[in-house]
Amino acid sequence: MSPATETTIEKASTGVVRGAYGFRLTAVGQRLERQELPALDPGPDQVVVKVAGCGVCHTDIGYAFDGVPTRHPLPLVLGHEIVGRVVAAGERAAHWLGQNVIVPAVNPCGECPACKAGRATICRKQFMPGNDGDGGFATHVVVPGRGLCPVPDKLPDGVSVAALSVVADAVTTPFEAIRRAQLGANDVAVFTGVGGIGGFGVQIAAAFGAAVVAIDIDRERLDLAAQHGAALTLDASQRSEKDLKSSVRTFVKQSGRSGIGLKIFETSGTTAGQATAFGLLDHGGYLAVVGYTPRPVEVRLSNLMAFDATARGNWGCPPEQYPAALALVLEGNITLAPYVEEHSLEEAPELLEAVHRHAIRRRAILVPPSK
Questions:
Q1: What is each CA distance from 328 to 68, 141, 201, 207, 336, in whole angstroms?
Q2: What is the CATH number of domain 3-169+317-367?
Q3: Domain ranges of the chain
């Protein structure tokens, strides 16, 4: 950012922020373009967040390269894993001024029938940054003032504000899946795919007291999972589906857990991972579909009937659950550092392409200039 741009950024407690910029997707398959943003003027219930960090998610790759449509037409600033400080606010959101916050990736309206029925994540009036409006691949972003998760000014050693951006999705989405599954100390949890989301899921499940199995085709990821909560790791590239099932069943018997049915979490977002996860269902089993792929998967759906099993997906996490997920990080039950890496916002175009090529192994976080 040029010195001239630095000096034009204005902060007003209840006013307009000028001089902000972001990296916009103008068309599918095109490089992100650095563009100046119009003056950011929060409405009565909105805030302007000065971004401290924004994670790069698999969903962003879907929008940018795979033709997954955004609800707001392009051009659009992507990015829905946002943490930062509130620097301007509308009159009904002024209490957030000066506060570090995590912005919910899925922010429901709180008033529609779905919200009132306790199904906030399917709210049709929800706001998702980088989908329903400009997101966090920017210096500043305007978001609703509702549902924000406060972040303490003093953080544990080794935890940066920017790193907490992944709590907005990569941590809270598996947290919600685990919560819905009612996972407890009597259960065996199985994760297919233990990259970012799955790696955090393993840690959350272990914190809940479950015995955890990690399945992946990447030995490095499996070794990391073993260091952070997985009692058994299985390399799916070296085993048949029959062998995987046998190994998991043996582990269940040896674990001494009395829970009825496996709690299986599909966190790979691949067809192979989803087929493996469905194939592991047993009597009374529970399958949480957390990962996403646009490609179809062929499974024998009647297994749900035959095993009296359950399969359920979850679109993000309700904002009211964010503080509990954040607490797991702040209390040391979830370790972020081995799973994330920070990059300058200026690297956004190259970084998004690198993530698409699978050249980045950790969850990449874009960090704007501090000024």
A1: 32, 27, 12, 8, 11
A2: 3.90.180.10
A3: 3-169+317-367, 172-313
Kindly state the average pLDDT of the residues 183-203: 97
Taking CA atoms, 330 is separated from 29, 310, 326, 334, 351, in Å, by 38, 32, 6, 8, 28
3-state helix, strand, coil in the chain (%, to 5): 35, 25, 45
CA–CA gap between residue 338 and residue 142 (Å, rounded): 30
**Mean pLDDT value across the chain:** 94
Question: How far apart (Å, rounded) are the C-alpha atoms in residues 357 and 351?
Answer: 10
- SS3 of residue 77 by DSSP: strand
- The alpha carbon dihedral of 128, 134, 138, 142 has a sign of negative
CA–CA dist 263, 259 (Å, integer): 9
* Prediction pTM value: 0.94
- Give the C-alpha separation, 292 to 182, whole Å: 22
Close Cβ partners of 105 (under 8 Å, ≥ 6 residues apart): 80, 81, 128, 129, 168, 169, 172, 173, 316, 317
Q: Which two tokens stand for residue 148?
A: 């924000």
pLDDT band per the 50, 70, 90 thresholds, residue 6: very low
> 52-65: per-residue pLDDT in tens?
999 999 999 999 99
pLDDT digits (tens, 9 = 90+) for 239-298: 999 999 999 999 999 999 999 999 999 999 999 999 999 999 999 999 999 999 889 999
What was the pLDDT predicted at 10? 45
The CATH number that domain 172-313 falls under is 3.40.50.720
How far is Cα 95 from Cα 31, in angstroms, rounded to an integer?
38
Closest-CA residue to 75 (of 139, 18, 129, 134): 134
Residues 6+ apart with CB under 8 A from 106: 120, 121, 126, 128, 315, 316, 317, 318, 319
